[in-house]
Fold each of these.
Amino acid sequence: MHYELYYWPEIQGRGEFVRLALEAAGAPYIDVARGSKKGQGVEAMMKLTAGGARSVKADQTRLPFAPPFLKVDEELIAQTSHILDYLAPQLKLVPRDAAGRRFTQQLQLTMADLVVEAHDTHHPIASSLYYEEQKTAARKRSKIFIAERIPKFLDYFEHVLTRNPHSHSHLVGTSLTYADLSLFQVVEGLRYAFPKSMKRGEKAWPHLVALHDHVAALPRIAAYLASPRRIAFNENGIFRRYPELER
């Protein structure tokens, strides 16, 4: 398959969950907005969104609202969880049985909820406002997120790992799934944004930490993490480190 991934070129964001799946499977893909060749770059990405499309071969009634989206032939597939559900059988990153596939997607959607809440720690009022315009609200939101929401989500994933009858090293079944890769990214992001809180709390999530370490050591993922393809965390993405939010 020929995969074209469209996402913002300077942040990991939601596109990183798709990148990790493609990288883990060794699937060739083009990160279009990061390219400098003709037909690449941010402009190429924006032309394919509902707000920017003017002359696209793809069916214009089926354009994505916003990145990330994946182009396969002339079809555009949007929404991170939806993209992963589409890719997973081809990349062998999901169980073959229907119930296993549904549960993997359920876990991914739960992580999507967590990602929204992590974003809202620094933008609790509006994404259109600068962080500096909502610092007071961000401090209140982060305090609750750290004390209540991180433990609630990560306790749940630890529980899923503990109760997996096939393997405590994976969320579903006995093999690597895209949910495992996404949980790795969630832990990475939370460690970046709230390092002190994660260091204190991780003793309660030994299976989750073990899964993170297992994914990080996978040869293809280790190579990706060490390569220029892996964008560093920064204060423009979803997971941001503002020390004043972790007092």
Amino acid sequence: MADKNSKIKTALETAYREFHSRPHRDQDPLAIVHAFVRPEDQEIVAFIAALLAYGNVTSILSSIRKVLKPMGESPYRFIKEAELSGVWSGFYHRFTTGDDIEIVFLWLKSVLQRSGSIESFFVEENTELPMKSLLSSFVQRLSQQPLPASLRIKAKSRQRNLKYLLSDPLRGSACKRLNLFLRWVVRKNDGIDLGLWSKLGPEKLILPVDTHLLQTLQALSWTRSQQANWKVAEAATEKLKRYCPEDPIRYDFALCHLSMSGHRLTRFQKENRYA
């Protein structure tokens, strides 16, 4: 077992050296986040980008830019101060509409006006709680922010789609996009992630698991599940703690881009013969 773990560690480090790099960041939604300089803007853009990070990469990047376009140089100031009604009329990103974006941003507007940042709002809950509880509390509290009467009925009719955008781990979701957002803002600034938050440590983070990464976990024999869910994400994170307990999802960006490249660890399995 020790020998197998050693070979997996070698494979993970090999993937990290090859894929945790600027050229791969330039093909990632993070490239758009890094284009902003002020931390308060980066936090907002990261949140937007993570929520829309489903579908193919070209579509994701296009949709993020469409949402950001009306906001100008400071998305933070725009959401906090501007009139948001109808700004994203006609917008679609697969299951997400302009109404969904407006509703989420109005919730966010209340958060920014009251707490000043997403981080401050997030850590209003006891950060000693497990991430499952922290994320669920964040989603529930965010979605309970007030809306104008004109949007309350729309919010009810779009409830299923809004729950997809802001998924709750208590409902079993892997919460891939919210975990992705947390990775971006919590992990230290290493040229890929941003290191924006200081009140939550990287040891708390959970692996953002989607169908692509699920295949990698299956190749590692870390799961037999055919679905990406919270249980799989939590179990995979525990596996990764063997290799980097203080920063278990250090390898996430590399594993994601390795998977996107079509390797799915096959090349690294052959080189390191750990499977």
Amino acid sequence: MAALFFVGSLGVAPASAARESLNFSTPFEVSDSPSGNYLAALVAGADHDTVAAATFYREALRFDPRNPSLIERAFVAALSNGNMFDAFTLADRLVQRDSTNGLAHLALGVKFLKAKQYPAARAQLARGGAGQQRDLTATLLGAWIFAASGDEKKALEYCDRLTDENFAIFRNFHAGLIAEFMGDTAEAGKRLKAAYDSDKNTLRLVDAYGRFVSRHGDKADALKVYTDFDALLPNHPLITSAIATLKAGKTLDPLIKTADQGAAEVLYGLGAAGGRQGDEVAAMIYLRLALYLAPQRGLTLITLADIYDRLKQYEEAIAIYESVPADDVLRTTADIQIAELLDNLDKHNEAAAFLSEIVKAHPNDEDALLALGNSQREQKKFADAAATYTKALSVSTKPDSVNWPTYYFRGIAYERAKDWPKAEADFRKGLQLQPDQPLILNYLGYSWVDQNMNLDEAFKMLHKAVELRPSDGYIVDSLGWALYRLGKYDEATKELERAIDLKPADPTINDHLGDAYWHTGRKLEAHFQWNHARDLKPDPDDLPKILDKIEHGLPEDKPPVAADAKEKAPATDAPSAPKSGG
């Protein structure tokens, strides 16, 4: 009989005792057929559904327990999903069959490190395949194993084996952390400063050095380390928390307090880099091993959840975000991400309620307010969204130039709420802060065309937006639809066909191209595009209009906007909104 499993069950302690954990589980069945389970595992793996892949591979392995390929696939799936008991068991079986399997040896090395079996851990890391990545990982983990054993000299000697200058930052960063862990302040200061001086734009380097200076140097110097970074990336919770602590006259704890945390930092760094480079499976594996050594590290959990988010595994992403500890400075960030994922799952009411709770608890949190405004805008509560964006701007501590997206989104909310003067003012403000921003050029230019005003400037904006983002189907569609609105149907058709090539599955663009085809006499093709738009699940407000065109076509009337019309005062009714392109 097939067994029933649940994906994404979120039975994790909530961030607030007053809030229950979310649970949007999706059930799936495990087959009695070995081939069925294997095929299901392949499909789940291709979809990056690590929960299902690990489950199906485990079931398939029960029927063919000696298959080396199946053992390896099941091992990788278990490790990617954080099933560490299964992963370590399968790693043991793997290395018995293939003594060069580097990933299996890495997993076992981490297992022995956690168990404080340091010679066994070193032995595992010394085996396996070759390559720069393996050498970097094994060398830095080996250094932390010696640090755990109390041998600073050997630990630093291991770090210094990384002679390739591409690894200089890793070498100095971890040598500095190890020296600080071992109480060698002079060596720690020299190494951490070298790492920081090499790259002042990386959060972990900044945080490690700032924390060190706060305890062993001038607090004013430490504060400058953080405020300099804040000027580059405003309002990161780890940075704002450190600044607040320093301004209160306190010192900061060291970044690393145990050897396990140090080894986890190695794995976190590799996982974060892999995620940025698009190697999601490797990134998940490194991050899972990091969490095995140092559970509940907020930044590691956030990074792992973000990978699941990008892979559209929203339930699993929510589960991981929920596991960020309640007292972690990244907890509110995790909650905001959960709310955005609920919107992605079409749980709009739950998302709005969730965000309202966050804003109630943190009324001056700009990121929470922006997320709430975005959710309200998605739900077409435009007046509410505009008010929320206004509140976000009022509490913002960012430089004004960084706030252009808030003016842009508030402008959209005002425009959709039929308050064009305020919308136009916000779009102009956004362009003042960020000249030639293609999203704003697109929205403002199209809106002017739709209202038959500022036509020369509007088309300059639309052409500029397309020039800046030639591969953005939404922006190309705006130019095409503006030409259509002026009755330039041949030119419109050319641009709208380009937009379709870029965004073939967008119902609005298909609808627009159908209209253009109709007015150029290509009525059979127009019906094809309208039928396609209908089948692509358009906005419910648009569907009746599309169905009417399918049945009756379009009236043979004059263009909606006269091509030679003079500029006029703003229309009393707001224009229909172009796609944002974002």
